[in-house]
Each structure stands twice: as C-alpha cells, then as structure tokens.
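Saturday, quiet lab. Running sequence design on the structure tokens for the scaffold JK sent over.
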C-alpha cells in the first residue's frame, strides 16, 4: 500500500525497504541494495535520486564513536531565555549553530526553551568551554545540565514501519 508523504511524493514498500537498508549501512552499493530489496541497481539508483531530490535522504554520513575519539562526556542541557521568542531566540540559535560541541539544539515547549545535546572531552572542558560560553550568551536566563552516565539506547534509525 502506498502512503502519500506530501502532494509530490508517495512511499511504497520498496522505498521503505531501501530507506531501512540505507539507515543500517549507507555504504552499500546499488547492486547490494538491489539484492537486499529485490530491485535492479538502476531502479535503486532512480529511487535513491528521487528520495534525495525530495529531501527525504538529507545526506549520508559516517557515525563516529565519540568516546573512542576522546569525546567521552555527553550532557543534556536545558536552556531558558529571559524572553520567549523575539531577538533573544534568534541570537541564541545563531550562537548554537557556531558551537561544534552542540550535537543537537531543539526548541521546545515546557519548562525550558531549548534542549541541547553536547559532547566534550572532559567534565572540565564541558564546564569551562561550553557551560561558561552558554551563560555569556545574551538573553540566557538559566541553564540546567544532566551528565549522561550510560547510554541505554542511541539510534539514528527512524521507525519506518509507520510509513506504510
């Protein structure tokens, strides 16, 4: 069964299978993908191009082990601004785009205005170079942080079974 994603794009079971395979290993060749999902390499190529053009496949990356490359501290930071919206929010978002330690910055509703995921080499680096820099951003009212002790689940794979 096909499910419309938007007016211009309709998923079918081959698209879902292709995306699932690519989420698991984006280095697979079109030949390997075709064998896995029962399509020819040329059909896989056309589908991949279509998924890229639609913005569904944004990019392909290598997922690194942060701890093995010396970034063993991970923190979840909750940031509240003095005022909601306005110039403070835009300024904060521009600053976050320039922080290489910030893996994710999400605007949220609730107690905080933003939730950040941050990596650092050490607790000292987290405190000195990240938290101190955050507190100096104009418009920041409060920061709460949680240090990740152990990652129980960490995935980049989206639940594609819901797409059909």
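Result came back. Writing it out in full:
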């Amino acid at each position: 069964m096909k499910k419309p994603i938007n007016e211009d794009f309709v998923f079918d079971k081959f698209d879902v299978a292709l995306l699932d395979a690519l989420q698991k290993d984006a280095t697979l060749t079109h030949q390997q993908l075709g064998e896995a999902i029962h399509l020819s390499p040329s059909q896989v190529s056309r589908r991949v191009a279509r998924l890229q053009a639609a913005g569904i496949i944004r990019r392909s990356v290598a997922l690194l082990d942060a701890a093995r490359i010396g970034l063993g501290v991970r923190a979840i930071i909750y940031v509240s601004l003095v005022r909601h919206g306005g110039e403070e929010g835009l300024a904060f978002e521009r600053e976050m785009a320039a922080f290489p330690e910030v893996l994710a910055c999400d605007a949220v509703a609730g107690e905080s205005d933003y939730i950040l995921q941050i990596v650092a080499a050490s607790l000292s680096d987290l405190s000195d170079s990240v938290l101190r820099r955050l507190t100096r951003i104009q418009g920041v009212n409060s920061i709460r942080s949680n240090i990740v002790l152990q990652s129980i689940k960490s995935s980049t794979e989206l639940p594609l079974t819901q797409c059909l």
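Notes for JK: The chain has a mean pLDDT of 92. The domain at 67-147 is CATH 3.30.70.920 (Alpha-Beta Plaits). Ask whether to fix the surface positions before the next round.
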